[in-house]
Amino acid sequence: MAEDSAGHPVARTRTASLESLELLYEEAGQPRFGLPPALATAYGGDLGFALPCVYANFVTSIDGVVALGPEYPSSGSAISGREPTDRFVMGLLRACADAVLIGAGTLRATPGHQWTPDHVCPQAAPAFAELRQSLRRLAQPKLVVVTASGDLPTEHPALESGALVATTVEGARQLEGRLPPACTTLTAGEGTALRMADVLAVLHARGHTAVLTEGGPHLIGNLLGEGLLDELFLTTSPVLAGRADTSRPALITGLELLPKQPAWADLISARRRDSYLFLRYRLRSRVLGHRARTAQPSASRDSTFKSSSAT
Ligand SMILES: NC(=O)c1ccc[n+]([C@@H]2O[C@H](COP(=O)([O-])OP(=O)(O)OC[C@H]3O[C@@H](n4cnc5c(N)ncnc54)[C@H](OP(=O)(O)O)[C@@H]3O)[C@@H](O)[C@H]2O)c1
User: Fold this and answer.
1) Which residues line ligand 1 (CB under 6 A)?
2) What's the CA-to-centroid distance between 18 and ligand 1, angstroms?
3) What counts of helices (H) and strands (E) characterise the chain?
């Protein structure tokens, strides 16, 4: 049997064949988790994160659209064309995460979804499990949903599977007795919106230091506004989405950056499959939200939230 870096036995698994990404560029000296061979071959190299880390994953059209509007559920799939390599990268990034963080808007817009690696790329499930075992992660990342209003589709299967729901006092009141038993509610003591640094502090206190956000433009805006986003994985899908009268947001909503607060980023890697581009950026985020960043989340901040199970 094969062994991981600490000498513990790791079961080698078979993975149905995956299309490979072509590596175009990678910055030297990146952290490496030691991906199982099937994942490393498909990704075009190794992948890792310096922890703690908050990293986002988005797919965008060529003209910068990330969501088609409320009348189109699961619009990320429409933008990506359900490209298998994009779904593989989505699964791989989930497989590296302790927790997947989304806003209620994304939950409401994506019925039937599960924010697990296997859901988007089932053929790599054995290799994802092998990776999580070698990283000492739980079998699946913990889903974390933030909502101020408490307006959640409480019968959503992702909530049925169990999630942390971070909310306000008013949100908790709206959700009282409505969430599935597998959910835990984290209620902030005051305010009409959550300070994302406090949410991350709770996650860190629970041992969730690799946090993937698949939230939409509002949540990304909030994370950037507090200077909390470390990296961005951006898939550019070779399609034009267009805009008529409906709102079709780009990556960020609710936060104006240029010209006063430019949020520059450095390219860490670039990969390609056919006409799809897979870009990885490091945010020079200290420009923004300096105070939030210096008030680093710590275990002691867990007390900002009151935790209660849904039963
Ligand atoms: N292309 C892609 O890769 C991609 C990725 C993700 C999402 N999307 C799309 O984006 C669209 C949804 O966009 P969105 O901006 O509405 O999604 P979102 O950012 O995930 O959700 C926004 C909601 O999250 C809650 N929220 C965010 N920050 C909060 C805070 N600091 N405190 C308390 N609650 C907070 C609020 O919920 P309440 O309203 O309940 O208070 C807010 O309305 C969907 O169409 C989805 O498919 C696309």
Assistant:
1) 58-59, 66-67, 75-76, 79, 102-106, 109-110, 146-149, 151, 193-194, 196, 214-219, 222, 253
2) 31
3) 11, 13
Rounded CA separation 24/31 (Å): 18
pLDDT score, position 303: 57
Residue 19 near residue 123, CB atoms below 8 Å: no
CA 299 to chain centre: 22
* CA–CA gap between residue 107 and residue 202 (Å, rounded): 21
d(CA 17, CA 123): 8
Residue 294 has pLDDT above 50, yes or no: no
Task: Give the residue from 92, 85, 94, 57 showing the smallest Cα distance to 216.
Answer: 57
pLDDT digits (tens, 9 = 90+) for 39-50: 999 999 999 999
Q: Check: CB of residue 270 under 8 Å from CB of residue 25.
A: yes
Residue 45 Cα to ligand 1 middle (Å): 32
Q: What is the CATH number of domain 51-309?
A: 3.40.430.10
Nearest to 40 by CA among 100, 130, 133, 136: 130
Give the integer Cα–Cα distance in Å for 270 and 164. Answer: 33
Q: Report the alpha-carbon distance of residue 127 to residue 278 in Å, rounded.
A: 21
Percent of residues, the chain, with pLDDT higher than 70: 88
> How is the chain split into domains, by residue range?
51-309
Q: For the beta carbon of residue 111, count every other beta carbon within 10 angstroms.
A: 13
Q: What pLDDT does residue 2 have? A: 44
Mean pLDDT of 54-79: 94
Question: Which residue type sits at 309?
Answer: S
- How many other CB atoms are there within 10 angstroms of residue 73's CB atom? 14
pLDDT tens-digit map of 185-230:
999 877 789 999 999 999 999 999 999 999 999 999 999 999 999 9
Q: Which two tokens stand for residue 36?
A: 């199982």
Positive/negative CA dihedral, 128, 120, 211, 256: positive
Query: Which one is predicted more confidently, 7 or 122?
Result: 122
